[in-house]
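Possible regression after last week's pipeline update?

I re-ran a chain I had predicted before the update to compare outputs. Posting the input and the new output here so someone can diff against the archived version. Not blocking, just want to make sure nothing changed silently.
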Amino acid sequence: MTRSPTLSRRTLLGALAASGAAPLLPVPAATAQAAPITRPIPSTGEAMPVVGLGTWITFNVGDDPEARDDCAEVMRAFFAEGGRMIDSSPMYGSSQPVIGYGLAKLGRPPGLFSAEKVWTSSGAEGPGQIEESRRFWGVPRFDLMQVHNLLAWEAHLDTLFAMKAEGRLRYVGITTSEGRRHGEIERIMRERPIDFVQITYNILDREVEDRILPLAQDRGIGVIVNRPFRQGDLIHDVEGEPLPGWAGEIGCGSWAQILLKFIVSHPAVTCAIPATTRVDHMRENLGAARGPMPDAAMRRRMAADAEAL
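New output (post-update):
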């Protein structure tokens, strides 16, 4: 979900950016910025800001100290802007220890909502992998653990529900990406008491609007949206295009905010998780969690205009 670092339409927002080489600062207790819009997690009512932080590709920086500090600075801006959910996976290379480094550097911000995944074909290996992930993050427990791309999902869900019953986990979920295995996703949503489903959804990939999103609403399941920019492709597609005249009506100053507001304005969506390596992009993304949200008529107009481009 990385985006181009040279988008001219973001010049204004770039003035707000902090240098990636700047020293890390403590996370402030509050900012002058308005708090982000939240949506309740259906199974508990806990408030969740509608824009979170993904780490696929972007946090896979190995042991490079400068790159690790860049990621920690993105996290600092994320928490300062009111963000909570950070999502990762054992599949994401070094992303987990990089998150742990950033959390330690920032003094372990209390607002963190930790969303992880179990990703192994062996159900017996699931608990050990989960514990390794927890050590990488340096958290006492995860808020949410998800079965990544439904790999060995039956065995892993048994493990996760047992952990939840024991108080070692707060929420249980499943994930898929790029529109795969929706039939199986639906079956699990109907048959198992999961708290979250993570799916791909954006202004052009709207298949989940027909069945997955309505089912989530009916079943009281939270929805996390991955790949909101098609790994940056949607941003590149509109590069150089002027913003639509209606952008100001919904408080959008960039295409990235338009694309995110389309997603998070759907009533079934709990949180979208764009990934980035840049502080200015992080602040831009969190800006989509503020201001007026498009109604159903505006959403139809947004989708039609995006398809026309």
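Follow-up from reviewer: compared with the archived run. The first helix runs from residue 11 to 14. Marking as no regression found.
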